[in-house]
Amino acid sequence: MSRFTVAVDAMGGDHAPEAIVSGAIRALRQSSDLEILLAGPADKLNALLQDAQDVQKRISILPANEVISMEDAPMLAVRKKVDSSMVQAVLAVKEGRAQAVVSAGSTGAFLACGMFRLGRIPGVERPALAVLIPGTQKPFLLMDSGANADCQSKYLDQFALMGSVYMKNVVGVADPAVGLVNIGAEAEKGNRLAKEAHERMTAQSSYHFAGNVEARDIPSGAFDVVVADGFTGNVILKYTEGLVGAVMGMIKAEVNTSLRCKIGALLMKPAFRALKHKMDYNSVGGAPLLGVEGAMVKAHGSSGEMAMANAVLQAEKMIRGDIVEKIRDGLTGLVDKMDGGEIV
Amino acid sequence: MSRFTVAVDAMGGDHAPEAIVSGAIRALRQSSDLEILLAGPADKLNALLQDAQDVQKRISILPANEVISMEDAPMLAVRKKVDSSMVQAVLAVKEGRAQAVVSAGSTGAFLACGMFRLGRIPGVERPALAVLIPGTQKPFLLMDSGANADCQSKYLDQFALMGSVYMKNVVGVADPAVGLVNIGAEAEKGNRLAKEAHERMTAQSSYHFAGNVEARDIPSGAFDVVVADGFTGNVILKYTEGLVGAVMGMIKAEVNTSLRCKIGALLMKPAFRALKHKMDYNSVGGAPLLGVEGAMVKAHGSSGEMAMANAVLQAEKMIRGDIVEKIRDGLTGLVDKMDGGEIV
Fold first, then answer.
1. Cβ contact (<8 Å) for B183 and A251?
2. Do residues B189 and B212 lie in contact, with contact meaning Cβ atoms separated by under 8 Å?
3. E strand or H helix at A202, and its extent?
4. Is the ipTM, as predicted for this complex, more than 0.85?
5. Are residues A246 and B271, on separate chains, in Cβ contact within 8 Å?
6. C-alpha to C-alpha distance for B58 and B1, rounded to whole angstroms
7. Which residue ranges in chain A fall short of pLDDT 70?
8. Contacts of A190 in chain B (CB under 8 A)
9. Residue B270, pLDDT score
10. Which of A94, A248, A307, B205 is the most buried (most CB within 10 A)?
């Protein structure tokens, strides 16, 4: 096994196992250091590896005969379905046979796997899901995108640190600017959580806190990491999808009101296509779950071969970037003295 | 004085007093039942009324010689600057000389005026700011759009009721469907606030609760009133503005990459202009502050003549719709028995 072994849940996602396996093969062809552990039923997976002679010696099969479905209650499934492809892939990381794991299966179950199979990095209060969202100038990492509906200010402080470590070491941003989602630019603005988080984030020394970001300015690209509680973060994530779709739909509706506009739209097709591609955060790769003892990437449920390959390569980058170790180091620069606060 | 007298803060807003006064005149020309009390310095305002002979007998001047600026601390200004145009206009409602008040001045000061000069309708926990936002099919009322950063579930229940009363009696929606902003469609999803609010909203009998709305579906037009705490609501409001602007900016940037697209964009100009107009929530009118003892409309700070006229006519509709009385009535159908809960 190489130092860059990624365990892949071959049975998770809408297009499993075919797209998952071909995505894994594609990733292996792109990165010569990479090795892959494919978790799933051996016979099915072997059949899909026929055309991968060139990379076959870097793929091993991790036999797993159960599947966690979208209908399964996450916690229960993670506890009971030990022989599932997802749990087996995660256990491979726990046992040191892989350094990262990728799944396009149930988000809830994957989060539960992270928390209860891998465990948190000591000192991390709550692991969080990070999504890289396209902005006008550059993408930003939204942290937490929905793993933690109820948050305390110390969680937000850690989200900022973890997001910052990821942007620096995986995406390659030299000095990531962290913004705190708030309803005003001034320090004293916001709800209790945001006010207390602002105070903490100002006091720490582990990342570059650039102040509050009003929602209006989120897409501007002035911030590399955008921090919010998981409820607000999830609203931002889903609203991005809904609103971009709505605007596109409204343009389409306007276009259909005149021939002139129809011709214009036809000519503009390449621009719309480029925009659609740019705004599609699923194409950027998967969402890393940060704060657990291993590199975890949640690929989108609808991932095809390309998206899956990207997610695997992203997991490899997380190994190369020593994400887990660097989060551990960064925690020491956060402020602990406010932990007595019971406000939020 | 007629039953439909609207007090107007003539000195609030970026284009005061000129655009405010001409907006008031325009509104008077459109509605023959309307009377207006213009609050501001008599000499200045009289000079602006020269060309309004046709409606002059329906305008009175309410002398006020101070102005509350955007720099003033809201609470302090509302207490100290009694002779300001904003406070005088609000006091006219309190004293029964007008039934509604409109201002394009400081939002914070206007909220403070509502709370401390007019006072809350008995039983209302927190007045809230409502903004009508364009959707793909029809507009929806976002409640609270930012007046209350920290909320309890009983506030949200009341926001739903008040928004519902407004949509029915001012906008004319027969049976407004209320959605609760949440991170999942199921009742058990969400943060503690959303879960408790869902329970309350299901139990009441004053409005039509249609369940949780995921942020992705907010623009769809399936909901007439979208309820959230003021922090989340303000994020949604501001993000709408920022993201629509970002998408338009990205289309523009794509267009400039080829001549073909440039020509297409030129042909599509009418469609873009129509969309821009449709998405501009400022053109819809002002934002009502609901829950106070009087009809209050906050016009956008940048309001010109047309926006101001719309805001005044909207205030008149709020009087006609008996908003205050109907909110009072609706409160009785809300559930009080959960008020012992200390969870949120």
1. no
2. yes
3. helix A192-203
4. yes
5. no
6. 9
7. 1-2, 281-284, 337-344
8. 149, 231
9. 85
10. A307
